[in-house]
Design brief:
Blueprint (H helix, E strand, L loop, with lengths): L21 E5 L2 E5 L15 E7 L7 E7 L18 E4 L5 E6 L6 E6 L7 E5 L21 E5 L2 E6 L11 E7 L6 E10 L14 E10 L2 E8 L4 E7 L7 E8 L24 E5 L2 E9 L7 E7 L22 E2 L2 E4 L5 E3 L19 E4 L32 E6 L4 E9 L2 E10 L1 E8 L8 E5 L2 E13 L2 E13 L1 E8 L1
Parallel strand pairs: 20-25
Antiparallel strand pairs: 1-2, 2-3, 3-4, 5-6, 6-7, 7-8, 9-10, 10-11, 11-12, 13-14, 14-15, 15-16, 17-18, 18-19, 21-31, 22-25, 23-24, 24-31, 25-30, 26-29, 26-31, 27-28, 27-30
């Protein structure tokens, strides 16, 4: 597919599920570390850690670095009952790369080490107090969760924590200082951000710390990024000191585009969401926020996305909208695009959250895939429509492809942004027991500019229609109006 050299969300292959993205620039590449969900998984983070990287000057050329650490490498996980929760990486005083994580079965911070950013990490040890007691097991400690790390000289700042709404047994996010061995606590822990029960007389009120801490340094200030009590958003706080004085500043991204009122009402969810976790990174002169979205109608098949941030004069950031183009150059109005890059997906029934038990019910659309989990290796593509949706990533190709399933009446898929030039005709690739129309708009509630006739079909097939789009940069929204349930795989500019 010739459009894949452009920047697309999700930026990893359509079948890859790496949430909780922690991006870092090492040398001339940006590396993203995260947990690893399984397609149709039963719980979070079922798979081993993998890594993806890209050149800093080409954020569309992501490379699969392979498995960097297995969950059976942790001595405390011999029974494999613990999954590898969200990790973080830092370069120690010795120049080696240290990977911090917490097993789902044990509230202690584990550490692995490697001589290169995306090599084979080896287990190194557990974070502990000076007396040898593991962090998380001493009086006054809280159970460890979601580590974040930042090394300055021979001091490494470690941030951890989880605090549910109404849970007064935990205060919030902890900050701890480790010595040059990267394991031993030399200062702290102290609390740096409050959870919801303790946030009401602070700047965090309404956006208190929930989970997913991350830490970055910008212009001499410390930026503490975290998942807020609202789950779907990544908020951030800023301080001159890494262990105190953090003041909440705003939201960087929401995986439902909530809060944003520039193209729809602020409280209207534009994608089904649940938890969120990620961080920001500076690449060149620009800043980006990495986050994840929820697919397959569950909490447990999350995919990484990123957006370019817009910085304000005071060093804070505007909330980034979810896009199909990573908030970068608009996509070209030529060739074929897969629908799994939809940044908006909703019906006329506003529902924000995917329940913990799984998909709400079959009234709602979801992004899913044909086939099961894929282990990267040489594969040929499955041709559909007039032009195959080919995912060519260098050493391997994917036979599987993703699509939007279960589009019932009023279901809408939105894509941002397209630089439209001389668009007179389009086609869509669909199947399913559905009859009606697939309407096209350039605004979610705008006038219909054209439509495709939809009929019953048990195989993927192409339907063309005269769709004239004014020249310029536009959103594209496709809304199904009719009966049955439509499967929507791709659309093309003819």
């Amino acid at each position: 597919m010739k459009n894949l050299e452009q920047k697309l969300n999700p930026y990893m292959p359509s079948w890859e599920y790496v949430p909780d993205g922690e991006p870092y620039v090492f040398g001339d590449r940006v590396y993203v570390y995260g947990s690893h969900d399984k397609f149709n998984g039963d719980v979070y983070c079922m798979l081993d850690y993998v890594c993806y990287s890209a050149p800093v000057d080409d954020l569309g050329a992501w490379r699969y670095e392979g498995v960097i650490y297995r969950k059976d490498q942790d001595p405390a996980n011999e029974d494999l009952q613990g999954n590898l929760y969200a990790p973080a990486v830092t370069v120690g005083p010795d120049g080696r790369y240290y990977l911090y994580y917490v097993l789902s079965s044990w509230g202690v911070v584990s550490v692995a080490v490697c001589d290169e950013p995306a090599g084979k990490y080896e287990f190194y040890g557990y974070v502990h107090h000076a007396d040898g007691t593991y962090l998380g097991q001493k009086d006054g400690d809280e159970p460890q969760f979601d580590p974040a790390v930042l090394t300055e000289g021979d001091r490494t700042y470690l941030y951890t924590g989880f605090c549910g709404v109404g849970d007064k047994s935990r205060y919030g996010a902890m900050g701890t200082v480790l010595g040059p061995d990267m394991l031993t606590i030399v200062e702290g822990p102290v609390f740096v951000a409050p959870g919801e029960p303790y946030s009401h007389d602070t700047s965090f009120d309404g956006h208190a710390f929930f989970e997913g801490p991350s830490i970055r340094k910008k212009d001499g200030k410390y930026y503490f990024i975290f998942s807020t009590q609202l789950f779907h958003e990544l908020g951030y706080a800023v301080s001159d000191d890494p262990l105190k004085g953090f003041e909440y500043k705003g939201v960087l991204v929401s995986n439902g585009d909530l809060n944003i009122d520039t193209y729809k009402p602020a409280d209207k969810p534009m994608f089904y969401c649940a938890n969120n976790h990620g961080s920001m990174v500076q690449i060149g002169d620009d800043y980006y926020i990495f986050y994840h979205r929820h697919t397959n109608g569950t909490n447990y098949s999350r995919q990484g996305c990123f957006e370019k941030l817009k910085e304000k004069a005071d060093g804070t950031f505007e909330q980034a909208p979810m896009t199909s183009c990573c908030g970068m150059e608009p996509l070209r109005s030529e060739g074929t695009y897969p629908t799994y890059i939809a940044c908006n997906l909703f019906t006329d029934t506003d529902v924000t959250y995917i329940p913990w038990s799984g998909w709400m019910d079959d009234r709602f659309p979801k992004i899913t895939q044909e086939g099961g989990d894929i282990i990267p290796k040489d594969r040929m593509e499955a041709p559909i429509c007039s032009e195959p949706i080919v995912e060519d990533h260098g050493s391997w190709r994917s036979t599987n492809y993703a699509y939007i399933a279960n589009m019932r009446d009023s279901a809408t898929a939105g894509f941002k942004y397209f630089d439209c030039k001389n668009v007179k005709e389009m086609s869509v690739c669909t199947k399913g027991y559905a009859t009606g129309k697939l309407e096209v708009r350039t605004k979610w509630d705008g006038e219909v500019i054209g439509s495709f006739e939809i009929g019953y079909a048990n195989e993927w097939h192409e339907t063309k229609a005269d769709i004239e789009i004014p020249d310029g940069v536009h959103d594209l929204f496709f809304t199904f109006k009719g009966t049955g349930h439509l499967q929507f795989a791709a659309f093309s500019f003819c």
